[in-house]
Amino acid sequence: MRTVIGLWAMVGLLVPGQSPEERETYENAVRVLTADVEDDASDAEAWFGLSIAYMHLGQPEAALDATSRAAALDPSDARFVDQLGEAYMALGRPEDAIDAFERAAAIAPRMFFPRLRLGELYVQTGRAVRAIAHLEEAVVLNGRDASARRFLGMAYRIDGQHERAVAEYERAIFLAPGEEFLYLEAADAFFSAGMEDEAESVLNRALERFPGSGQAHLGRARLHVEAGRLREALDDFQLALDSGQEIPFEVVYKTMGDIHSDLIEPEPALAYYDRALEANPESVDALLAKGDLYLNRNDVDAASAAYGQATALDPARPDGHHGLAETALRRGDLEAALVAAERVLELDPEFRPAAYVRGQALVRLGRLEEGRRQIESYQEAQTADIAEEQRARDIQAHNQEALALLDAGENAGAISTLRDAIALYPMEALLYRNLAVIQSRSGLHQDAADTYLEIIALGLGDALTHLRLAREYDRIGDADASRRHRAIYEERREAEAAGRGTD
User: Among residues 226, 179, 178, which one has the least CA distance to residue 199?
Assistant: First the structure.
């Protein structure tokens, strides 16, 4: 027995084997412990040690059998029941694992690992309330475990408690500063909380520690795209490509193509769409984007070829059929244009551009009355769409001008530009939010608070608006107002969580 206990202790201390020497240790443990249980099948500790050795050897079925025997011999030993949960997890049986870990936690409420595993499993299955209950207990038991902090952050995030989520991620980073994925998850949590500056800050910290991190560059590129800083986004996308790390090449190339297209730079846009197709020859999105660019240049044959490939790959995509309808109309193939346009409207009756193509084809085919009715109906809807598009472009132009002034250090000019835009579009929440962010960055915290109050008074705010307002009151030093708006945030967040059914 002394030898067996010594081997069990060794197995328990070793991490999962990577080297031949470690694997030999586990195999030796299995031989010795198997002999022991053959001599005495009532030795629960030997069965337990055998289970651990099998887990390290990547044999969860054998581990489950061994630990089941240990638990049957002594069901009051939380270690045995906890090990059952580990085996079930390794076998991909989460509900059985949850049952085992719940029993282990009930037997030994002060045992850390069942709480951690329950939190992890409840997070994975989207049951945030239960995950939080166990993980809050876990961090009380071991507050210096980065995994517990990370999973608690994930649980808070699922539950909509964004500020608590980012606080836990920051604690996890402090405890494990060498874990790159923690910075990336923290940045994503900040972004979800509407804390774009903080998200960019944590990504900058990640890049200071991991200069070649492709994922960090991708995260920062995403922030730049959201802020309309397209050139900076292109720079970060390129750095991600240059990192040599595994990244979603098709998506990155397609996005870079879209950015160049938005910047009215068709040649580099086409080049990036081609790269996306090299990464994935069946990328329907890249083919459709190429078709649109060729059509804008009136290269009808190239556009038709791209749309044809896209439609062959995904016949249910209406935009591919619409591209074929447009190119057929420009070539004068009216019957083909009519067939393709009608196919679009079968797939999506609200696809208005196809209605226009159908109307044009009908008129040119001599079906004048039917075609004119179709075109008039389209034009009425299009007039409203054009007005909305113009409004969106104008808002974006003001926003871009404000950002450029902010980048140049002209904060007052940025604020003035956004105030002018708000005078033109007094019900556009984005303009107010950007104004408040710039005011806060400029140290004008009372002005920022007033802007958030205006958002709320106009009915344009959400739960996060109250949280942002609370932060401004913190900076002003108005603790009562901060508490009041944090309470409103919590109430609205809980109402949203109840609506989602996160438990």
Answer: 226
Domain count along the chain = 1
CA angle 362, 364, 365 (to 5 degrees): 60
CATH value at residue 488: 1.25.40.10
Identify whether 412 is part of a domain.
yes
- Token pair of 389, please? 């598009």
Higher pLDDT, 221 or 13: 221
Q: Is residue 429 part of a domain?
A: yes
User: Residue 298, by phi and psi: left (phi above 0), alpha (psi -120 to 50) or beta?
Assistant: left
In a domain, 437, yes or no: yes
Burial 48-63 (b: 16+ CB within 10 A, else e): bbbbbbbbbbebbebb
- Per residue, the 3-state secondary structure of 144-155, as one string, reads CCHHHHHHHHHH
Half-sphere exposure of 416 (CA within 13 A, CB side): 5
The answer to whether the CB of 148 falls within 8 A of the CB of 119 is: yes
Tens-digit pLDDT profile for residues 22-41: 888 888 888 999 998 899 99
DSSP character at residue 176: -
Encoding tokens for residue 239?
């750095």
**Position 360 in a domain:** no
Query: Do 462 and 443 contact (CB within 8 A), yes or no?
Result: no
121 exposure class (CB count in 10 Å sphere: 0-12, 13-18, 19+): buried
Is residue 53 helix, strand or coil? Answer: helix
Domain hosting 479: range is 382-500
Structure tokens at 155: 């649980």
Which tens digits make up the pLDDT trace of 121-160? 999 998 999 999 999 999 999 999 999 999 999 999 888 7
Dihedral (CA of 366, 372, 374, 379) sign = positive
Contact indicator for 325, 337 with CB cutoff of 8 Å: yes
